UniProtKB/TrEMBL annotation:
NCBIfam families: cyt_tran_rel, PRK05627.1-4, PRK05627.1-5, ribF. This is Riboflavin biosynthesis protein. SMART domains: Flavokinase. Keywords: ATP-binding, FAD, Flavoprotein, FMN, Kinase, Multifunctional enzyme, Nucleotide-binding, Nucleotidyltransferase, Transferase. Residues 185-312 form the Riboflavin kinase domain. Pathway: Cofactor biosynthesis; FMN biosynthesis; FMN from riboflavin (ATP route): step 1/1; Cofactor biosynthesis; FAD biosynthesis; FAD from FMN: step 1/1. SUPFAM superfamilies: Nucleotidylyl transferase (SSF52374), Riboflavin kinase-like (SSF82114). GO terms for biological process: FAD biosynthetic process; FMN biosynthetic process; riboflavin biosynthetic process. InterPro entries: Cyt_trans-like, FAD_synthase, Riboflavin_kinase, Riboflavin_kinase_bac, Riboflavin_kinase_bac/euk, Riboflavin_kinase_dom_sf, Rossmann-like_a/b/a_fold. GO terms for molecular function: ATP binding; FMN adenylyltransferase activity; riboflavin kinase activity. Coiled coil: none annotated.
């Protein structure tokens, strides 16, 4: 897959690209609904013997359009989003730099400059996709704005039970720590990535060494507490128990941000500086302050047993 960064205004012309079927969306999470849009585009491209492309945007439009938002956390930051989209056998990923100038394009200008000018011959998007200034362009106006230059397919709402599959719902589940339910909508367990850093090394003194992981702050983090997780280290998955929090048993004052520490089962390697992936499976309990080391150790033993039991059953 070729990743093409586009800055507005761009200089591309139709002859720069082979005819493409284009999937449009922000695609945060690349969840089941997003996969349906992209897979629909891929199937159409295959029938037409053409290329399949995805267009997304960076950063999230709210960072540009809302003065009260300076930083956005994602289910899938851009690097992870690109990795997942590539697995869907996409030829081109267009990443449009979202700026106020780009946001001010009229719907017709967006279609002319970002679809027709890129040699798009078929557009696929979800039923609620909008484009152009103030989102005035919709899948209902697209036939008019297409000028007859391309065809289009609208993908209807996708639900699981009575709940619409959406990035908004998945973010809500992450915020509430309800990570067990996420695969029903995302198609996989939620993951975050980061670098293993040096911590206070207190865990090893009580028999539970941990990988202190500095999670990329572009990711949503589940709420503080103890979780059953898997962790990817050097292409190998391991089970473990993770604490997100402020370690109130040891710290009188709260740090600016919580630490993410994984006790990896049956693991003795030194992995400082490694990039790891944490896969969130189940929230075991909330974080709490204990009366001493002995009480804490007893609880960690229970957490470890609960986690081992969980993975034994799944």
């Amino acid at each position: 897959m070729e990743v093409i960064q586009i800055h507005h205004p761009h200089q591309f012309k139709p002859e720069d690209f082979a005819p493409m079927t284009m999937a449009l969306g922000f695609f945060d999470g690349v969840h089941y609904g997003h996969q349906k849009v992209i897979n629909t585009a891929a199937a159409i491209a295959e029938k037409r013997n053409g290329k399949v492309a995805v267009m997304t945007f960076d950063p999230h439009p709210s960072v540009v359009l809302r003065r009260d938002i300076k930083h956005v956390e994602y289910i899938t930051p851009l690097k992870e989003k690109a990795r997942l989209i590539e697995q869907l056998h996409v030829d081109y990923l267009f990443v449009v730099q979202f700026t106020s100038e780009f946001a001010n394009l009229l719907p017709q200008e967006f279609v002319d400059q970002y679809l027709i000018a890129l040699n798009v011959i078929h557009v696929v998007a979800g039923f609620d996709y909008s484009y152009g200034r103030l989102g005035k362009g919709t899948m209902e106006t697209l036939p008019f704005h297409s000028r007859g230059k391309f065809e289009f397919t609208t993908v209807p709402k996708l639900s699981n039970g009575h709940e619409k599959i959406s990035s908004t719902l998945i973010r809500k589940l992450i915020r509430e720590g309800d990570v067990e339910r996420i695969p029903d909508f995302l198609g996989r367990f939620y993951t975050t990535s980061g670098i293993v850093i040096h911590g206070d090394k207190r865990g090893r003194t009580i028999g539970f060494p941990t990988a202190n992981t500095a999670i990329d702050d572009s990711f949503y983090l589940p709420p503080i507490g103890v979780y059953a997780v898997r962790i990817l280290v050097a292409d190998n998955w391991y089970e473990g128990v993770c604490n997100i929090g402020y370690k109130p048993t040891f710290n009188e004052t709260q740090a600016p941000k919580p630490s993410v520490e994984v006790h990896i089962f049956q693991f003795t390697q030194e992995i400082y500086g490694y990039e790891v992936v944490v896969e969130w499976h189940k929230r075991i309990r909330a974080e709490k302050k204990f009366n001493g080391i002995e009480e804490l150790v007893q609880q960690i033993e229970k957490d470890k047993a609960s986690t081992i039991d969980y993975f034994h059953k799944v």
